[in-house]
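So, who can interpret the following?
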Amino acid sequence: MKETGAICGVSVAHSRATVDEIEAAGGDGVRATVSDLLARDGVEEAFALQTCNRSEAFIVTDKTVDGAVALESFAPEVRSGAIRRLDHEESLEHLMRVASGLESLVLGEDQIIGQLREAYEESKSAGGVGPVLKDAVTKALHVGERARNETSINEGVVSLGSAAVRLAASEIDLTDGSAVVIGAGEMGMLAARSLDDTPVSEIVVANRTVPNAEFVAGEVETPADAVPLADLPAVLPDADLVITATGSPDPVIDPAHVADADRLVCIDIAQPRDVDPAAGDRDGVTLYDIDALEDVTRRTRESRQEEAARVEAIIDEELDRILRAYKRKRADDAISAMYAGADRVKAREVDRALSRLEAHGDLNAAQRETVEDLADALVGQLLAAPTRSLRDAAGEDDWETIRTALRLFDPDFDAPPERPGSGAEAGPAGASGAPPDSVTEELDD
C-alpha cells in the first residue's frame, strides 16, 4: 500500500526572474519537460506550465525528499534567487493563484486560464497527470473560474497585448501610423484588437501560416492585411510599431530586418524572444520586452487590489477544502493498509482455528459463522481506536504517525512463515482492505 503522493513544485516567473531566465528555464516545451521529469527517480506524476511570464514544474513523489531531489536540476542555468521552490501546500495554493490571475504580470488577466488548460492537456498526453495532479490542476481551474465569476478581478483589465499598445502610445504618436503584429495566436489577436482602438491607419498581421493571419486581420475594423513571415523585410521599414508574439523557438526579427527603419518601436512579448536584442541597438529602433511592461501593468494592479483580496478569500476557502480531502486520503491509505493487513492475519488464523476444531468433529455452518463473526468483531474493536488516531493525525498534519502505520500494516509485506502442522495457507479472501461498515459508522457518530 503506497502512501498518497505529495506535490513538489518549482517556479521561475516574472516576479523574480528576467525574460532571459524564464526562457532558459523553459527547456524544449511542456511535453519534453514532463517526459524528463517522469524519468527521474521517485517521480510518479509531472505537470509543466510554460508561458511568456513563467516556466514551472510540479511533480508527485511518495516521499517529499525524493521530490526535492528530482527538482534540484530544474533550470540549471538560472540563478538560485530567480527560482522559487514549493512544498505540497504551497504548490496547491500557487496553482490556484496562477489560475486566478493573481500571479500574472497583468493582474487578473484571462489568458492564463486557457494556457493552464493547454498545459494540463499536454502534460496528460505525455503521461504525467495522475490522480494527485489531476485534483490539483482541476481545482486550480475551478478557482480561476470562481474568481472571474464572483469578483471583478478581470474587469477592465489589460492584457499583455493591450499593455504593449499602451506603452507604444506613450512613446510615439500612433495617429495614421502603421502597426505590424507578428503572430496570430491569442496574444497576437489581443494586440490587434487593442490596436483597433487606436488611431493607427493600417495593421499588418504577419504569421508563418497565412490563413491564421487572415483570420486575425478579419477580426479588426482598421484596414488590415495578412502576410507571411517571409515578407517582414519588406513590411518593417514602413512600420511605426511592431508587436511580436509568436511561439517560434528562434528570433523572427534580426538587425538586418530593421536596418532601414527611421522611427520604429518594437515590443517583444514573446517567450522565447522574437526579436534579436541586437536589433535594439540600431539607430531609430526602440526595443521593449516583457520586463518593460511592468510599469504599465503596475497601475492596473493597483486598481485591482480590492478585488484581489476577494479572490484570495476564495483561494483560502478552496485550499482548505482540498487540503482536508488530501489529509483524509492520506489517513484512509493508512487505515486501508491497516485493515488489509489485519484481514490477512484474521483469515489465516480463522482457517487455522477451523481446521483444528474440525479435527475433533465436523462443524456446521452456524458454528463456522460464529468463529468468523468473533474474528471480525475482534478486528473491528481492536482497530477502532487506531483508526480514530490516524484520522486525528491527518487533521493535525502528523504525517510521521501515518507513515509509521503504513510501514507497520503494509499488506504487501511477506506473510510470516507457516508453523509446521498449522494447516493450509490462507489469504485475505473476501477482505476489502477497508474498515467494516460498523466501525465506520461508529467513527462517524
